[in-house]
Amino acid sequence: MSEPVLNEPVPSEPIIDQPEILLRRSGRVGQIILNRPAAMNALTHAMITRISAVLTEWASDDSVRTVLLTGSGERGLCAGGDIVSIYRGAQGSGADAARFFADEYRLNAQIHRYPKRYLAVMDGIVLGGGVGVSGHAGIRVVTERTRLGMPETGIGFVPDVGGTYLLSRAPGELGTHLALTAAFATGADAIALGLADHFVPSHRIPELTRSLAGSDAVEAVRALADAPPPSPLLAERDWIDRCYAFDDVRQILAALERSSAAAAHAAATLIRTKSPTALAVTLASLRRARALPSLEAVLEQEYRVSLRFLEGTELQEGIRAQVIDKDRRPRWSPPTLDEVTADAVTAYFAPLTADEDHLAGLHLAARNRPHPHDTGISGTSTNTNTDVTTETTRRSAS
Q1: Catalytic hit among 129, 132, 149, 154
Q2: In the predicted model, what is the mean pLDDT of the chain?
Q3: Of 25, 37, 183, 348, which is the most buried if we count CB atoms within 10 A?
Q4: What CATH number is associated with residue 142?
Q5: What is the domain range of residue 206?
């Protein structure tokens, strides 16, 4: 990948100097730069709380009209949360990891209902927590270099940061396919799935960054966006919709393996490498999320599930195998889908105790600031953050 446009100088002055987060102001735009390039800008707890505080400050600052989110380094916007820190926290009491998730999910909701233009440049790698700080933005820009994914099932976890909200509202079963396989989506795929809005070639991102200083964000994006190329994933929708139409992962695998599509067989092989527990809970999370009325309601569900994974062994084992020891040989428990009981899955959605409920009251934001993507069905949707009416693939339950 060539030198990223986000690292090129822009006509602005740093207003704060923190190693992990850089803030710049230029005209009417406030820019947040994720600045851990050696870790693909993985989010630490300090980054999450700082971003939230900056957004709160800029929301009442009349000199800021648009917030721009970018990432530094060559590889992309953000590779997700700092899972090494989560691993260490889970080995202790789990309290630090629980607070990390709570603050991260509050930030996701804050972005979703931000009262000003919030434009996320989803160039390069955008994974997990990176989707959380960009996929809920009012204006979401992808490029030909975008590689977006929710890789959680590969580390014994489930899509979170509102990922089950976004994926459950994708057309047909495309979101289910991405969630269970933990596969990458291109920028064109992201638009087709309703995870992004505009395709801007990467060589135009510097111009977009400069134009935001004096132009309305919607107009600036419109002037530089191209029609996206065909979506590879959308071309596979026929067999994906058929094979993933079940509410049991074992039935999905059987359908994939019966399919005449070679890509379906590859998907089945990939799914079988994931944690059986994580797969079953992920599918249940997606099905439940479809019926929930808002992002906040889904985040509250995801938080319950996340805390139960912190109590278990799957998440720790997955991170150990993939990141700590890097032997790529996780020992899942139980090791097969047949051994994952319905009661065990249901337990992940159990109500929280008063001591656990760090997200208490999050749903009140949904009542106080309605969002057009929380209700309705697929089709034409108007995003009040962008004042642009687009054909979107986001689905919401009525």
Answers
A1: 129
A2: 88
A3: 348
A4: 3.90.226.10
A5: 5-392
